[in-house]
């Protein structure tokens, strides 16, 4: 009996060891995918969970920062690339990476279902749109009333002396939202008038911050009554109950596209393409529609509080290729003129 019992225990231990090795082996086979992103942190978990559920053999490893920082990091790593995929980065940044020969042209599965206007026009495309995000002004009506500040209706209003010290804005070198503001003003009014406007606006700016969301959060807390931000964060702040009105300036809204690209140098092209496939899927677009009024998959977006029905018609004319080609020059000029009011870098 003892021998039999000992043998049974040995057999059980052997089975458990084999199962353990099999589980370890299966875990070891999970391929890590390095994904550089500027997505809002609110959204990252949902994308990761959704993709990994559909692709259990791949693990998404996010590397996140603001748009300008991610763009600079990718360019700095050009000789020694680390990213497999880029997701949720501004199309104007991806157009620049395309010009540098860093992106792999790839048409993901289901691409023909998407709105073609929101992806790279080349065939196959080097970047595929997820959503459109656009400028908005967050206006704290309670704090503004205390200061005797009227509600602005236009970009030009913000250059009036009554708003001196009352405005925060994203820094265009670190924030994609800040860059789309500057780029849109230069395109909307021409470069001479655009810089004149920013000179006047600068007199009223209290601080240039390193995040597109932060100005709206500052407006919500009353730190500054006006924050130049974007509609995603404005919608979230308003939804939270803050005394914030969303203003869509009547001259038009600067905008950009969050998009996905496969890096040309990835050592895991099959897995990277599967990630691009999933990001182009209806499932991923349904996640995106939680926060964005305009998404790449037609018919998926839903009505968001505070976002007007004619939202897409408010978008200003925008040449993303021009913005990409002139990015370095624009940022150098902007920094020379206005960097003195930038918040310290974290």
UniProtKB/TrEMBL annotation:
It comes from the Bacteria. Residues 1-28 form the signal peptide. The keyword Signal applies. InterPro entries: ABC_2-AEP-bd, Ferric-bd. Keywords: Signal. NCBIfam families: phnS2. This is 2-aminoethylphosphonate ABC transporter substrate-binding protein.
């Amino acid at each position: 009996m003892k021998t039999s019992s000992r043998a049974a225990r040995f057999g059980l231990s052997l089975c458990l060891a084999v199962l353990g090795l099999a589980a370890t082996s299966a875990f070891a086979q999970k391929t890590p995918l390095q994904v550089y992103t500027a997505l809002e942190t609110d959204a990252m978990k949902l994308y990761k969970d959704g993709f990994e559920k559909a692709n259990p053999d791949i693990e998404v490893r996010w590397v996140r920062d603001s748009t300008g920082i991610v763009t600079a990091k990718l360019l700095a790593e050009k000789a020694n690339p680390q990213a497999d995929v880029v997701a949720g980065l501004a199309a104007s940044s991806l157009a620049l990476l395309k010009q540098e020969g860093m992106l792999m042209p790839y048409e993901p599965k289901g691409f023909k279902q998407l709105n073609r206007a929101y992806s790279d026009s080349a065939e196959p495309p080097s970047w595929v749109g997820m959503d459109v995000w656009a400028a908005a002004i967050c206006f704290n009506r309670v704090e503004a009333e205390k200061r005797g500040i009227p509600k602005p209706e236009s970009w030009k209003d913000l250059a009036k002396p009554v708003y001196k010290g009352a405005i925060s804005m994203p820094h265009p070198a670190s924030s994609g939202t800040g860059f789309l503001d500057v780029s849109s003003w230069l395109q909307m009014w021409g470069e001479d008038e655009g810089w004149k406007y920013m000179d006047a606006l600068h007199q009223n700016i209290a601080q240039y911050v390193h995040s597109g969301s932060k100005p709206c959060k500052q407006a919500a807390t009353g730190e500054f009554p006006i924050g130049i931000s974007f509609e995603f964060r404005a919608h979230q702040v308003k939804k939270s109950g803050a005394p914030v009105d969303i203003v869509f300036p009547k001259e038009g809204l600067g905008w950009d596209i969050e998009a996905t690209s496969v890096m040309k140098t990835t050592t895991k092209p099959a897995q990277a393409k599967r990630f691009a496939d999933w990001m182009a899927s209806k499932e991923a677009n349904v996640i995106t529609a939680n926060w964005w009024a305009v998404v790449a998959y037609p018919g998926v977006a839903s009505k968001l509080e505070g976002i007007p029905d004619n939202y897409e018609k408010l978008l200003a004319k925008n040449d993303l290729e021009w913005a990409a080609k002139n990015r370095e020059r624009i940022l150098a000029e902007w920094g020379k003129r206005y960097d003195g009011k930038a918040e310290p870098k974290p």
